[in-house]
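How a chain folds remains the central question behind the approach discussed here. No coordinates are needed to read the tokens, only the vocabulary itself. For completeness, the protein is quoted in full, as a sequence line and a line of structure tokens:
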Amino acid sequence: MTATDPALTALSQGWCALSLLHGKIEARIERALQSGHGLSVREYSLLDVLSRQHNGPGGHLQMKQVADAVVLSQSATTRLVTRLEDRGLLTRYLCDTDRRGIYTDVTETGLTLLAEARPTNDTALRAALDEAARNPELAPLVRTVEALKVPAQAVGSA
């Protein structure tokens, strides 16, 4: 393929549309979460991912799994965990079976904040998708997003 290849141009345009849709959604949710709950999109995502953990085999996520789920590097995820821990929203403790392992759980305060923020997140997401659906370039992507039926636990397991 060359830089003027129509397939490459179409692929590039598709990627730009997807990036634009993501940016619009994230910006809308960020504004709503910040103003309503003092949370960033990343903080909300981290609380949401960690709130889905459970005790027992495979119940607690390793930091790499958490990082993958919130689309951050492990070091950025660790810094984010530390910030939320400092705010009393998360707690860390050693794994009983592997003293090198550290688990992270959402505190009651964190769960309460997450429950309060979830409707805000969902409303902002719906509004961003509705707005994007009016753009002819983004409408097919919106339809695709709306058609996805991905279980929440599958998001971070890739």
Notes: DSSP finds seven helices and two strands in the chain. Residues 153-158 have pLDDT under 50 and may be disordered.
